[in-house]
Design goal:
By secondary structure, the chain is an alpha+beta fold. The protein has a domain of about 230 residues. Helices cover about 50% and strands about 10% of the residues. It is built from 13 helices and 12 strands. The protein has a 5-stranded mixed β-sheet. Helix 1 packs antiparallel against helix 2 and helix 2 packs antiparallel against helix 12. The longest helix has about 55 residues. The two termini are about 35 Å apart. It comes from Nicotiana attenuata. This is Protein defective in meristem silencing 3. Keywords: Coiled coil.
């Protein structure tokens, strides 16, 4: 019998070669080192070579992720540097405008006083109003009026508690609020409101006390209703303030159209365009709130300011609390449009720190604020990418050491496999 005719029989106790699947660590990644130990025990050099290549691919892929994070950080740094340069250039431009428009301190102070006096005279024209009577008292008795039981809790008239840089914007804001609100008296507490008007047992107004009695004493009887605003009962703005802003302007999120872009012609929020005396910036209420986050935030909320009516109408999808445009357009709450000619003569006093500045000054200010916002987002993105990069580098170091250890443990099998391939060739 030839060898070819004889069947080859396997021994009964022959064991099949077992190829183990890679084990997985707690993080869900394959533990190739344990797998290498198993394959070495089973003597499968081919599996060792295969898994060596797989581990090499994993290390290579992790290296590509590191490179991607590094490129992202490089791009974000370039973007941040560009924003820094643009902000600096615009700040230089603003400084130039301010230098060119500066007048002497004495002239500026004189203009400031004249503007306040003009507003007081406008209020006094409404002789039978509560605001007119209160201003008459202040004019006659000066600072002593603040110590009277009747008026010691009165902070002032709405029209006198803020100033606006631009005369046209001042008239527009006054028109938006309306004459009744502009003439409203502002009290710190509800006790101050009770002192302004008292009632008899039948609930009728006592004409001999409060503002009614004061009006009668100076020959100006108080006629009709009037508004009084209680600061301590107003719900204050709950967000943050713009950092390092001496006017403590509110850090309100800028509007965005449905496509994510900022509406063209948007100049800012009305609540931030009113300048407030330093004495009322911080502690207008006993709780430590200032006028901006109490009175003016409740009056204007997130009222938008736009350059033109066309810009304002284009931004309708992102207008929630009304808007006005510098050419006279007004949108009240819930898309109620105010049409026709404005009739309000009473306006806020004018602040003269920027009175002679060109119109694009405010546009540059808006652009600087927007660029600073973009810079903050870019820095946050850089920090996020840096954290991902650090994590990727840490994992890469572990996997690289695992790969080198794998090669060292299985070098004899890889060499043996190579020699067999060379011999068969």
């Amino acid at each position: 019998m030839s060898i070819n005719d004889e069947k080859v029989k396997l021994p009964i106790n022959a064991n099949p070669i077992v190829v183990h699947e890679p084990r997985f660590s707690q993080g869900g990644q394959a533990d190739y080192y344990s797998f290498a130990r198993d394959t070495m025990q089973n003597g499968t050099a081919e599996a060792t070579i295969y898994n060596s290549k797989k581990l090499e691919d994993v290390v290579h892929e992790m290296g590509l992720k590191i490179k991607q994070h590094e490129e992202n950080i490089k791009f974000l740094k370039t973007q941040k540097n560009g924003l820094d340069n643009s902000i600096l250039d615009m700040q230089v431009a603003l400084g130039k405008y301010q230098t060119e428009s500066e007048s002497g301190p004495e002239n500026e102070e004189l203009s400031h006083v004249l503007s306040e006096q003009e507003t007081i005279e406008q209020i006094l024209r409404y002789e039978k109003s509560a605001a007119g009577i209160w201003c008459q008292l202040k004019t006659r008795h000066g600072t002593q009026a603040s110590h009277l039981p009747l008026t010691k809790d009165v902070l002032g008239i709405v029209a006198m508690l803020g100033k606006v840089d631009d005369d046209n914007l001042s008239r527009l804001l006054s028109d938006y609020l309306g004459l009744e609100t502009m003439l409203a008296i502002v009290c710190k507490t509800y006790d101050g409101i009770k002192a302004l008007e008292t009632y008899d047992k039948e609930g009728y107004i006592n004409k001999t006390s409060g503002l009614h009695g004061l009006g009668s004493s100076i020959g100006r009887s108080l006629d009709g209703r009037f508004l009084v605003i209680c600061l301590e009962n107003l719900r204050p703005y709950g967000g943050e303030f713009i950092a390092d802003d001496p006017q403590r302007r509110l850090d309100i999120l800028k509007p965005r159209l449905p496509n994510g872009e900022s509406p063209p012609g948007f100049l800012g929020f009305a609540v931030n365009m009113v300048n407030i005396d330093s004495v009322n910036l911080y502690c207008a209420t006993s709780s430590g709130y200032g006028l901006r986050e109490t009175l003016f935030y409740n009056l204007f909320s997130r009222l938008h300011i736009y350059r033109t009516r066309a810009d304002m109408l284009q931004a309708l999808p992102c207008i929630r609390d009304g808007a006005i445009s510098l050419d006279g357009g007004i949108i009240k709450h819930n898309n109620v449009f105010a049409l026709g000619k404005r009739e309000v003569d009473l306006k806020f006093p004018k602040s003269f720190a920027k009175s002679n500045l060109p119109q694009d000054y405010f546009e540059i200010e808006r652009q600087i604020k927007e660029m600073k916002w973009k810079k903050e987002r870019t820095v946050e993105d850089m920090q996020r990418e840096q954290a991902l990069l650090d994590h990727a580098r840490f994992n890469f170091g572990i996997k690289k050491q695992e790969y080198l250890k794998f090669l060292a443990q299985n070098s004899s099998y890889t060499r043996q496999h190579s020699f067999k391939q060379e011999g068969s060739a």
